[in-house]
Amino acid sequence: MNSVDNKHSDNLRSALLALYHSGPNGFEGLLGIVLSSVTGQSFRLAKSGSQRGRDGDSAFDGGATYFEGKRYRKSPKTSEITAKLFDLIKDDAGQLDLWVLGATCEVAAQTATEMRVVCERLGIGAVLLDWNHNDLGALLVAIAHANQKAKDFIRDNLKGKPKAHLIKDALHAIDHFAKHPDLPARLETLRDALSAEEAGLGQARGRNRERLITTLSSRVSARAAFGQPLAPRDTSALAGISRPLEAQLANAFTGQPTAEIYAVIGDEGVGKSWLTASAWLSRDPSSILIICPAEELLSPKATGDFESFLINKLIQETGGQRSDRATQRWCRRIRGWRANLPPKNVRVTMVFDGLNQPLKADWSRRLDHAASELAKIGGCLVISTRLTHWAHLKSSLACKVVEVPVNQWTVAEVKDILQGRGIDAKKVKQDVLQSLRNPRILGIAIDLLSENDVETIDQLSVGRLLFEHLRKTQKTGAEPISGPEYAELLKSLANETLARAQRQETDDLRVFNSKNHHGLQDVASSRFFVPVKGSLQYEIKQDGLNLGLALSLIDALEKELRNKRDPRDRLAIILEPITALDEAASIVFLATQIACLDEEASLEVRSALIEQFVSLQNLPNDDSEAFAVLVRTAAPSFLTAAQNVHMSKSHVQNADWLLYALHNHRDNPTVWDAISDAVRRWLAYYSLAPERMMFKSPGRDAEKEVTEERNKRQAEIDKKVNGLTYIEKKYRDENLHHSDRWHFDTLHRLAFFLLAGKTLEGFADDLVRWSFSGALGPAIHAPDREFRQLIRFNRADWKETRAALLKGISTFAGDNSSTVGKWATVEILRATGDLADAKRAEELAEWLTRDREKFPGWSRITDYCAVDPCDPSTTKPDNVDATAQQYRAIDPSKLANHMGHSSVDHFFDMARTGVTRFHLDDAVIAHRALADDILTRAGIARRQGALTLLEHSAALTGQQARDILKAGQASTATFDSQRDERDEWLTAQYSVFTAIAHLPAEEQLEAIASIEGNTVLLDILDALLPASESAAERVLERVLQSTDTDKQSSVLAAIRYSRPILSLRSRSIIGELLKSGDAGVRTQALGAAAASGDQELLKTVVESGWDARPLRAGKQTFERWYGSSALLEAAKCGLVALEEALDRIDLDYYGFAAQALGSAASKVIAKRVDEAIVKALGYTQTSNLPEMATSTPNAASASPPIISLNDPPPSQDIRDRLDRLGESSEQFDARQDRMARSYDCFTRELTTAEANLVLTDLTLGGVKALVDADETAGRRWIGMFNAASDAQLRHLHHVAVQLAVTLAKEADAEKLLTRLMGVEPTINRVQGVAKVPAECLSLWANADEPPLRDICKRRLVTRRDDRTIALEVFAAYLSGRAKIVDETIDELLASGQPADTCMALTLAGFCDESPHAISVLARFDGAQGYIGIAQKAASDSYQRNLWARSWYEQMRAAKTPLEFWQASVLLTKIVDLRFDIWTETMGAESDICRAFFPTVLREIGRRIEKWQKKRKDHLFGDKSPAALFLPDEAL
Asked: Bias category Low complexity: which stretches (predicted)?
């Protein structure tokens, strides 16, 4: 030290000497403060006297280390220290744990040594804090480190004392040394000296907690320490959830235990150890914790000398080093603990973890002994054990026990845990979800996800989890035996079970005695076994048996391979006994998973199992992801299996599972490398087998015919082979591989699917090889179409691939090739889609086929009429005259007798357009003859005739119409009766419908009043014209007096729909009928009142107390609609208060109310909608629902939107399709009943959950009104929808779209819209005759907003079939956004890619009248190839729309019924969805058109539907490619 240091040192020493020598306010107190500062532990002075304060306040209870310390002015003699410590010999059970010698002088080394020797003998720690005049001594360093605390102590305890003047200099001294450069090094030396043995019990306890927290925060450390990954605080591991059970363990770690033993019991893997560790971690301060494997309790030391066993553990768990000194010190502490009972807090807790070993006779004695010994020192024993062991053990324990039962997590808890890790629990299969309730299994699942062994939760299966559990058995410490040993045991038991089954044993088939099976006793309490009561027998559970059988199956296949036999050949035989257990599919899948995951499994065994698995029937779709993810570890095996499957002569039902797996994981580099190699190999296969081009086959066709065709095909192949040029032969020998297994067409198709979407330039040579192979050895079922689609829809590198392909076929240019090389060239040129290549291809193909006979196309329709009669510019062809003669001579009795079509029916339909166009009179004669014949019919023949005749109503005479009307009116059949009577009712309704257009308005209303049935078709009501004021009054008066409620409701409905002017008396009658006791009459009276707008009628409705709330959602649709409409009209007139009106109207009318009642009302409505959204989001049921569709509501409509129900279409399986086509009337009715019951259940659930918004359409206008009034609410709803699950969004899809469109400028709205595009709505909402999705129209109607404009353009170019493309173009035109379509067309054409050109042409073809579209179509007129096909289809579509417009104009201008009919026949043959565009823009319609148009409207809708159905299977006019070939983006 320098002079400055010495000065400050002296000043500080003087102040220390001025302190009182002992006590908390003297020098001893200062020592406690500085020691606490240096060590971070609490120190407390022990009381003086022989008992050292033995008052029950043990060292642990206060959380401090008790010490005594003395101050010496000069170096003490050894005898002085010995004398002072002598009385401690008499106090070997006191609190004192540390002796501190504090000296303001330097203590001699010999004195310090003597001090430590004495303290060591006593079991007390010794700390020397002395002074050094030449250096920074330990006491000075400690005081400088304590800094402010030391300064405060000196100031407080010298202030007011004689030596108070020393305070200032002492404080300056402390500040000086606190900044001294040597202080850090000296402080580190001092801390090293204050080891756990020296610093005392408080430090030991702190070290224990610090050490365990570190261990319990790392699975790696925990596995090393405990043999299992017991790490509740490892943030990378599974984050558990707090369990209330932890409170039951609280007193085992803090406070006073309520029992000697705490038994944590539960099944394997439920988290017993985890709960124990977590409970301890949650308590601070807590006891010293010692965690021991249960087997340590079996050691002799634990039984013979428990104190020594305990001390060794204490030293180890507090971070100490084993030594005599440490042992002696812990002996003293234990003696002190025994002498200071009971403690306020438990001092030490020993956990014997995993008491799952075989039960020994002395287990209870050992536990009782350990618990008793711990209780004597204020400690506690905790054990964890499985239920099966505890059942035998608990009754033999003498100690008091607290049981802490641990169960598996609930499903809700598992979902919460998964949600916390960002995993959508809804994607977890139910069986997997149940398995994940076991925390250990869930931990394994999370590990697999974290390590990217699986990418998504739906790729997990129960079998995968069980195998991973078995594989990690030893790693997780779950069982006392290794994974391989466990597997051998399971295999042994599984094989014995099989043997028993083969011996036809049935009793105790899965029960085994532990004496006979080594290792069974060790794992008997695991998840795979259940004990048999009253014995040492155990039953293997089904999942354990399946696991064992799967492992055994793999062993058997490996044995086949070792012995040079193909595992595939013996697999069926090996599986035969397993099949008898009805678990074959599960076992094969489990074996497949194990083999693919086990690195030691052979490729051949893996591929054999994969092939076997996909060959099984009825594979559950839930397993597809779990199967697919296996390809990541076994790609070569999957590809081998795929090759075997696709080269097999037999059909493999689930071969597409292999495609799904390979395609879904092909972005994995390892998987893609394997796929690339396999694809190159596959595309080089060729075969010269004549069977590849044969239509006839042995067994089905005559042997002679088969032989003849085989010889013919062989001759063709021989000719090709013999004609090969030298270059072609060389190419074949160097590039192709001959295969004797010639069934490889589907393998090539698989190859193309796997290449789809990838860059193809590197595969160009392989594609040329395939083309040459096909030309050399052609096949009927070769994937030519897929080959072309692969290249045409290549967006990754089309230009580069084309160049590489053209380079590849240059080998076959000119004389270098025979017809084989030239046909290979044609195939490549056709495939590129390029215009120049297509032209070159067709020229070459024309030359190659120059000697072949050409056959013209043929169509039955052209036989009837050689020109297209729908083209207004065509003139009459010669052949139509004969057709007309034949047409007028049709026997009407042979028409429309059955649901199916006879040859006469086909002629009647197919020849109609030509005959009607060019020989109208002949067409009329045939249809009028049918009308006369129908009146003579009965039953189904009459029904079918009436249905057929409806659209031809305008062709009938007035008298025919009246005769048909009378027949319809006379029927008393009802709609809600049995099938036969319901058919009669339908016949009657269609008869009235056919005739009603011929009547003047007055007679129409009279006709309705004369119908005897109980229900009138809405189509009839839509066809009505408004009667005069007097006629309406007269008919109303008559039905009022008749008291016939059916007629009353029918007439009221007619008035509601036709809206005649109502006299005062008419309004009075409606008012009276509002009070009718008949629900149907009241409903129609409500509708008439709402339509009239009469305030007196509306006031009557208000006063009636009518309320929509008691009516169930989805039921009483008309009453809810009409009543709500009336109340809304009343609210607009101020006849009812807003809140009351909103209370009483249906939620369906809230959107209309928001638009009609203004901003203030909209704010009130918004609050109610907010509640409705919350409740609707709470409803997530989606199962067993039919396909549902409804039109968008319109407040001006006479009827509410009705939900239509449809069964999902039959599967692609031909048997399902045939079953649907051939179903009987009874089967059809049963199917309809099932749908109705399902819908009824759905609406009941919605009503119960108050989730009516699912069925309600607020309309886009309504949502806009609500958001305009309360934009904050709109943003809040956007947030709610963004946070919702897909299941929730399905139900509220329409509301979410309307809201997102309304708030399109918001980023969250755009995010929601993007997501909604991928969510299928529960109810499809459509608009117009074309039934265009409402969401499509909503987007296009608001496409002036940039985000929506981008979405609309993207939708235009990413539609995957002509149907959806047509819908988008239609929506654009209907919304006035044709310009966006034109822009998109130009952008597509600019790309130069054939697929984009075809898309542009298709868009143009679906436009309405457009000069831009015409120019685009004309630009590619005469194009060949793929673009030529698209151009022709687009041009035809465009022209037909112009023709349809022309015929519709003639219909609207028709002056006679026959003029109308002629034009309608031609229109309904060609009209498509664009009908809704131009019907809105044309002028006034004639009276004839107004009268008869409703009769053809349904046929117009059917024709539009037919077009759309046909377009659904086409893209760019050609057959739609597989979805794999279509990119997500096209621009």
From this structure: 1189-1204
